[in-house]
Amino acid sequence: MDDETQQAVMDVVAGWQTGVSQGDADMTYDLAMYRWQVQGDDDEALRLLEPLAGASHVPSMRAVAQLWALRDEEPWTRTRDVLTSAASTGDVRASFRLGSFLLHDVCEPPELAEPWLLAAAEQGSGMAMGFLSSFVYMPLGNDVAAALWRAAADAAGPADRPTRLTEEERLESIVAGSPWWRHDF
Questions:
Q1: Which of 79, 118, 120 is nearest to 101 (CA)?
Q2: Pick from 89, 45, 77: which is nearest to 64 by CA?
Q3: Helix (H, G, I), strand (E, B) or coil at 38
Q4: If 165 and its partner were Cys, which of 112, 150, 169, 177 is the partner (CB 3.0–4.6 Å)?
Q5: Which residues does 101 contact at the CB level (< 8 Å), separation at least 6?
Q6: CA-CA distance, 140 to 40, in Å (whole number)?
């Protein structure tokens, strides 16, 4: 990373720190995500995110649930409850995360994940459409629904799939004022 980009990132981070001191939830979220995603400091990220999640800041609820699931330290019921609260607001990414969490992390029956994945799919999530096809309807033996959702997922394309950016592209997204985590988390 060149010196100019490094300084620009530090300027953005300083702005987020100012926002944190002023109680700005979105800037606190951005600083926490920077600490986690760029610096690898998930302890500091959780310290910043957990109060926001407790105040129903939906992006923070999604991030906290993901950090808890990655750490495997919290009871899965707490993660489920946070994701359920976030998904209940109609947030498409939280609905998808809850459905995939129920299927893959706690191995619940597909019927329990279906309403959350369906909510996300109906809002256009190609990932949720693919999960409905592969992990809900195929295991339940509903080949018609599986085929319909697979076709819908293919038509939706990769628009909502997490991006694989280089470190330079990630830093450039921060400097541009649109960090990648606002789109992937």
A1: 79
A2: 45
A3: coil
A4: 169
A5: 65, 69, 79, 80, 83
A6: 39
**From CA 18, how far away is CA 132, in angstroms rounded?**
43
Alpha helices in 72-123 (DSSP H): 76-87, 92-100, 110-122
More confident residue, 17 or 69: 17
Residue type, 98: L
27 is written with which tokens? 């800037």
> Which helix H or strand E contains 45, and what residues bound it?
helix 42-54
Indicate the pTM of the whole model. 0.83
pLDDT in tens, 6-42: 899 999 999 999 999 999 999 999 999 999 999 999 9
Look at the chain and count its residues. Answer: 185
- Amino acid identity of residue 74, one-letter, is E
